[in-house]
Design a protein that fits this description.
The protein is mainly β. It contains two helices and nine strands, in the order E-E-H-E-E-E-E-E-H-E-E.
Length: about 150
């Protein structure tokens, strides 16, 4: 996956989504971790200005009126009238690293994204870049769903 920015707007692309989640998976979900092997373009004009390549996760839900479309579950409060999705940033790439880095972030069961999941929702991983010259290159990624242990007695 590669996303290249051409200006001040955010370029983004869905890298992959999970299959629809079941009620059982959602009820026992303890944490969600996104692991990526990725890098930026390998240089930066001003390293102190921050990284402008990152990964987001989002919950998407099938439209109730249409069987063919999916919509982002969240909206940013300040742009609730807009179609811009709520940004749930997982992690940024390290600045000026042309070599792949192993990066990850964990979302706990109390995170808004996980608390809002319903059966048949999907979780999407989104690669993002902003500002001319910034590239987000993802080589591999994994979403790790960790469930609560529930012992069974026989």
């Amino acid at each position: 996956m590669k996303v290249s920015a051409g200006g001040s707007h955010v370029e983004q692309a869905i890298w992959f989504t999970t299959p629809p989640l079941t009620k059982g998976v959602i009820e026992r979900l303890q944490t969600l971790q996104l692991h990526t092997v990725s890098h930026d373009q390998g240089w930066a004009g001003d390293r102190n200005a921050g990284s402008w390549t990152w990964f987001e996760i989002s919950a998407i839900r099938q439209h109730t009126q249409r069987r063919t479309g999916w919509q982002n579950l969240f909206k940013r409060p300040e742009v609730i009238q807009s179609s811009e999705p709520y940004r749930c940033v997982s992690h940024e790439n390290l600045i000026s690293q042309g070599e792949p880095q192993n990066l990850s972030n964990t979302f706990g069961a109390d995170h808004e994204l996980l608390r809002s999941l319903e059966p048949n929702d999907r979780v999407a991983v989104i690669a993002c870049a902003r500002f001319r010259g910034w590239d987000n290159t993802g080589l591999s990624a994994c979403l790790d769903f960790q469930r609560r242990f529930e012992p069974r007695f026989f």
